[in-house]
Amino acid sequence: MSKRIQRVNQLLKEELGKILHKEVEFPKGTLVTITRVEASPDLKQAKVYISCIPEREGVKIFQILNKKAFFLQQKIHKLLSMKIVPKIKFVEEKEAKTAARIEELLEKIKGND
Known about the structure:
Layout: H1 3-23, E1 31-39, E2 45-53, H2 58-79, E3 87-92, H3 95-112
Parallel strand pairs: 2-3
Antiparallel strand pairs: 1-2
Helix pairs in contact: 1-2
């Protein structure tokens, strides 16, 4: 992955995080986190990986995010001076869940020793 794509990914993550925090209303008691962003090499698309707590609110969170996707792209376009602003696609972060589960299992194994 090129340094340019890495910088774009980081910039999108930071700016989207700020916008979500200020301008998108999520159900009370939920924590929504952007874990990473993966822009395509041509910068036409970007997958935004989302983690939410509690997990049972995931469906509702993704409905809100998908409704706001165009609004978020417009905000990003105004904030960043890029020729092409990637089309945003929200994706559930599964790697964090897997890591948490592995951590949990390791703790159980340690406890059994």
